[in-house]
Amino acid sequence: MDRTRPGESPEICNDRGARGDGPLDTASLRGRRHTISAHDPGSVGGGGSRAAVRKGGMAMRSGRAAFVALAALVALVSWTGAAQAAALVWQSDFTGSGFNNFKSTPWNNVGASAPVLVTSSVNAPAKAARFTVPGGGTRSEIEPNVVNFTEGSDYFFANSFTLPTTFPVNETSWQVITQWKNADDGSPPVELKIGHGNVILDGGYGNPSGPAGSKYWTTTLAPAATGTQTTVVLHIHFSSNTSLGTIDAWVNGAPVLTGYHPIGGTLYPTAKKTKATPAQAKAQKDALAKTPQPKDTPKEPAASPDTAVTTSKTSSQFDYWKMGMYRDNTLTSTATYDLESARLGTTYAAVAG
């Protein structure tokens, strides 16, 4: 039977037989081997060098190894990029999305206008969100469209911002640019502020396990630079248990805080408030006198000596993320700054890039 395929010579057909595709034509193969041996000086049987053959084989194997290594590298880079993208939970994306990645919260503008989009002064043509709170104003804030943070939540947060040279960095009262706000009234468990010439991380004044101020903590992260972008990354493990609630911090890529345990945790315990008895009120008033509110912390309206607070030992409140500007309305200066970007993720690499 003629096993020659269309466009194929009988000689090739016989090769197929040698590979197992048809009957083996040994005579034809012997003839072809003789022909190759007689005319190919590089063949084994034609006087060619066996070393040359081995060298050629080694070159082929080396080429294959290089190809495999390159393919593995490409796969690793692709996997790394995909993993990093998966670890990024949310980003502001002012350039592509405006304020669409934020909730509608008009009540966060008190004595100040809502933020506006501007061309970044440091990353043009990218967009940034500009916040302005005049003297006597209280807040201009926005809330990312993300989940609330509960007991055991663990996330990385990045805020990249630019303070203009006119920003009042040396104010001694509070100017909060981002906060992880508790569900109840009062000062949050964790907040980032500008004041005393520094970027400051503090919180805890409103902890309901009080008395007010007894759980307050503060630490300076870095000098407050103007005219240039600053990126602060925080890794927060949320817990009302002081041994579990932790914070790590980086400023412009440099670690500045590692494994910090705020005295009041990073979440507040759930609390029940009732009218204090005269004895409770006196005891709280005496305790409050020993821990007066620091001048540069937000006022704590719920911390009244006339209120008795019972905290839960089994549950905690949630925190939610806010950013922008929240400041003491007794300040007479005007504060304006640009938020370049904000990111939320499950790894440092996902938010720091």
Structural features:
353 residues; 33% strand; eight-stranded antiparallel sheet; 24% helix; alpha+beta; 6 helices; Jelly Rolls; 17 strands; seven-stranded antiparallel sheet
Question: Mind explaining what this structure looks like?
Answer:
- It is a single chain.
- With 353 residues, this protein is an alpha+beta fold.
- It folds into two domains: 10-85, no CATH class; 92-352, Jelly Rolls (Sandwich), CATH 2.60.120.200.
- It has six helices and 17 strands.
- The protein has helices at residues 10-19, 26-39, 50-87, 94-97, 278-290, 348-352, and strands at residues 88-91, 109-110, 116-119, 127-133, 139-142, 154-162, 175-182, 190-195, 198-203, 217-223, 229-237, 246-251, 254-260, 269-275, 307-316, 319-327, 335-345.
- Strands 1, 3, 4, 6, 11, 12, 13 and 17 form an eight-stranded antiparallel sheet that branches. The chain has a seven-stranded antiparallel sheet with strand order 2-5-16-7-8-9-10, with no helix packed on it. Strands 14-15 form a two-stranded antiparallel ribbon.
- The longest helix has 38 residues, at 50-87.
- The chain is globular.
- Residues 1-48 have low confidence and may be disordered.
- The CATH class of the largest domain is Mainly Beta
Counted beta strands = 17
Number of domains: 2
Strand content is: 25-35%
Radius of gyration over all CA atoms, rounded: 34 Å
State the low-pLDDT regions, or none: 1-48
Bin the helical content: 10-25%
Query: Mind telling me which CATH architecture of the largest domain this is?
Result: Sandwich
Number of helical stretches of at least 4 residues: 6
N-to-C SSE string, H for helix and E for strand: HHHEHEEEEEEEEEEEEEHEEEH
Structural class: alpha+beta
- On the 0-100 scale, what is the average pLDDT? 81
The CATH topology of the largest domain is what?
A: Jelly Rolls
The largest sheet, given as strand count, sense and whether it forms a barrel, is: 8 strands, antiparallel
